């Protein structure tokens, strides 16, 4: 029977060296008694006849990579059986490398339970360590100095010391616990496994903090189960406000009832002055609803369809109120939605380019869309255009009809199938209607072409050039129709 004594305060190396020696000598787990240093009776920590075997190049185990960090965590546990448990797992891994995957195995289940306990204790340490600032030297020069007392369940001080070094690099601090201590002076991080004594950290700020805590305590939001789950009661004893908590909990229900029964208080005097100042301001004059400006103002609050929920703003038409030509697109794109203006995105640039090439002046046209809000699908950081459905087009038709009534254009150019449907309710193929002027009510003419965004979506360069040329010819036809109102009947009849 072998007996080995370890310090057992979170040092993985001492267990690893002993385990390696036993494993090399093919010593089975049941032949070893693991003890804490100080419990031994022999001169060197072993009873007569019991020795740690010398490594003799015997059995070796090629353990899975996950075992090392797993064991380093478990060795921090305070349970004295952890040494024997880890050696049993190490021994059995030599026979079954997949052992740790069997969560129902008693040894694996116990080890995972210990690992979870250490990780939870480590989390609680990072959350509940509360530093107290210490006075600076008499000359008042130097870095800020802080001290903290914490009582962990396990030997985790060395494990978490680096966290506090990164988190509180700008100050000198000392963390004391019954299971070790850590110190940072701005240059060197030092840890000790020796048990520390609890210092007296009370000072004149404690009473101020207790008063503050009692006044910010909200009895209406009290959830005792959640509170004790996040901060177990064992941590309360080192909190200055701990003795207040039972009374605050006990009186919480009464305080909630008192708050509910208490009448509303009168607002502060300055509130009445602000209200009087607001009432004295002149009411802004709204634009006439029978003008484009008034119609645009109304459209800014449009909620006729769900598209307004996601869109940035209503994108209304723009241009002269007496324009002879009205351009009707489909809907705003991403750029238009952000800018609040129609045809200013990539498709708008193509449109402006072709207008320039065909001698048309955009400033003489009224430009709008069949749908006034941007419909899209979010994909990562991008907003991808989606075609509006028939219901959305029909709900938005009211605004388009009012724009036509106010502008009274002689020629309307519909760009894209959505614009055609909004103006005529026709669902025919766009290629069958394109380039053919059609009469509308009110002695108006409708000219149909593609939307410039269609040209941007064509992948083949040759096809794109051909379609761009067709679009130029359509705009040239629009130019001819614009030149004189008398030319429209002649072109239609020809």
What does this structure look like?
Helices cover 41% and strands 13% of the residues. The chain is of the alpha/beta class. The chain folds into 4 domains: 2-125, no CATH class; 129-192, no CATH class; 212-258, no CATH class; 292-493, Uracil-DNA Glycosylase, subunit E, CATH 3.40.470. The strands form 4 sheets. It has a 5-stranded mixed beta sheet, covered by helices on one side. The longest helix is centred in the first third of the chain and has 23 residues, at 106-128. The chain is elongated and about 110 Å long. Mean pLDDT is 87; it is low at 43-50 and 486-494. This is Type-4 uracil-DNA glycosylase.
Q: Structural class, judged by helices and strands?
A: alpha/beta
Percentage of β-strand residues: 5-15%
General form: elongated
Q: Helix amount, in percent? A: 40-55%
Low-confidence regions? 43-50, 486-494
Shape-level CATH architecture of the largest domain: 3-Layer(aba) Sandwich
- Identify the strand order in the major beta sheet: 3-4-5-6-7
Query: CATH homologous superfamily of the largest domain - what is it?
Result: Uracil-DNA glycosylase-like domain
Computed CA radius of gyration, to the nearest angstrom: 40 Å
How is the secondary structure organized here?
Elements: E1 2-6, H1 12-24, E2 32-36, H2 67-74, H3 82-93, H4 106-128, E3 132-134, E4 145-149, H5 157-167, E5 172-177, E6 180-184, E7 189-192, H6 205-216, H7 224-230, H8 245-250, H9 252-261, H10 269-280, H11 292-299, E8 325-329, H12 334-339, H13 346-357, E9 365-369, E10 376-379, E11 382-385, H14 390-407, E12 411-415, H15 417-424, H16 430-433, E13 438-440, E14 444-449, H17 452-456, H18 461-483, H19 487-493
Parallel strand pairs: 1-2, 4-5, 8-9, 8-12, 12-14
Antiparallel strand pairs: 3-4, 5-6, 6-7, 10-11, 13-14
Helix pairs in contact: 2-4, 3-4, 14-15
